[in-house]
Amino acid sequence: MADATTEMTRLLQIMARLRDPETGCAWDVEQTFATIAPYTIEEAYEVADAIGKEDWPGLKGELGDLLFQSVFHARMAEEAGLFDFADVARAISDKMIQRHPHVFGAEGARTAEEQTAAWEVQKARERGGRTLDGVALALPALKRAEKLQNRAARVGFDWPDIGPVLEKVAEEAREVVEARDQGPDRLEEEVGDLLFVCANIARHLGVDPEAALRRANAKFERRFRAIEDELGARGRTPAESTLEEMDAIWDAVRATDKAGPAG
pTM, whole model, 2 decimals? Predict the structure, then answer.
């Protein structure tokens, strides 16, 4: 703990030095909450990426980058007279103690399921009873859709099973087709409705839609790179090929994927 305190103090001092208007870094001094926020989001994704790759040495560095983002925001808040890093740490410590009375208070032990239910009750109380409050706008749209749907489901606003959800997919797909000639705004709205209900399918099946889409992205990237590699072996690039030729390679790669390691 002493080492952690020492290193945290050192990091806070480094941040203060970087933001010093006289002797600091010009780039760091110019930043604001708004300009730093995208970097904060990016660093959180890089943490998730390192975990997905099981890159544990990389995770150490990515967690440091994410911690630095918290320190950066706290430093700007301190300069503006809003709060400081100690306030940030105190607030999260207080919240964790409040939300875990079975650990830090007199309540008895809870199962994981009981704790999840109690956690949601406490968060709802903190939101003042407004079901959808607190779902961050900056979340990826697919993840935010899932969270909004989960919140609504907790108060009974949900389909009882996946059947009606699948029917809704077909309905929304038809509406996308109908909207093709009704202008870009209407088309965007209908495509959004289709994506929203796809997130609902994933939720009903217990699948993380964001993780599922990341997996699909990775699969597409791997298969398209295989197309590039095969065409390269033939002395051509995708731009010099035809759709039919690329489709044939894609199908071959897909068949190999489905055959699995045993082939």
Answer: 0.64
